[in-house]
Design brief:
The protein is α/β, with parallel strands linked by helices and 214 residues long. It contains 9 helices and 6 strands; from the N terminus they run E-H-E-H-E-H-E-H-H-H-H-E-H-E-H. Keywords: Hydrolase.
Length: 214
């Protein structure tokens, strides 16, 4: 039986952005499931509530001993962590991988907030990505689900030059890493390309199978 992998897109994207990763994982032997979340104008808490409803629909159709894996790119990883910190479906989740996720908040979101309160009040997901807002979510690792994180360090985007630390053009490497990860790896890709790369799919497969990237 092919293991199911639920793929969660990032800020201001939709399920189309995860279809390359879906195809790559299906070449390895997984069954990919992409979702759509309102990750532009809604707060992370609301999007996480919507996601939990989607997960319920997926889980209720699983066989008794079947579990799902969940992979998120960028803000999608925070949606996954929110689910893990609050969900009653933990027993049906195998492993999770977060790709280029600002687990400690987005410095660019902080800069946007300092520049324009109107902007972040319209783009509420962006407001939710501010460092203090992410901290306030209290995304505790009070479960036994193994989580791996993949960061990129190819700063090939203009906004990346506003960041002082090693980054992928949107998110710093140090923001991706947090206490409680089972494993962590850095790849030489930018934020908008990292989840399209075959190497990323291969590492996700390795982590699901072994709990390690290498």
């Amino acid at each position: 039986m092919n293991q199911k992998v639920v793929l969660v897109h990032g800020y201001n994207k939709n399920s189309n952005d995860m279809k390359v990763l879906k195809r790559n994982l299906e070449k390895i032997g997984y069954k990919g499931v992409v979702v759509d979340l309102p990750l532009t104008y809604k707060e992370i808490e609301y999007c996480a509530f919507v996601f939990e409803g989607i997960i319920y629909e997926i889980i209720k159709n699983l066989k008794p001993n079947e579990k799902i894996n969940i992979v998120g790119h960028s803000t999608g990883g925070l949606i996954i962590r929110h689910l893990l910190s609050t969900s009653k479906y933990i027993s049906k989740i195998n492993k999770c991988v977060l790709v280029a996720t600002p687990n400690n908040g987005s410095e660019l979101a902080d800069i946007a907030g300092n520049m324009s309160k109107i902007l972040i009040n319209i783009f509420k997901t962006l407001k939710s990505l501010q460092c203090q807002e992410v901290k306030a979510l209290k995304l505790e690792n009070s479960h036994e689900i193994e989580i791996g994180a993949i960061a990129g360090n190819r700063n090939n985007l203009f906004l990346g030059y506003l960041l002082s630390d090693e980054n992928d053009g949107r998110v710093t490497v140090k923001s991706v890493k947090f206490a409680g990860l089972k494993d962590f790896v850095v790849l030489p890709y930018g934020h908008k390309e990292i989840h399209y790369m075959w190497e990323t799919a291969r590492l996700i497969d390795t982590f699901i199978k072994t709990g390690k990237f290498i």
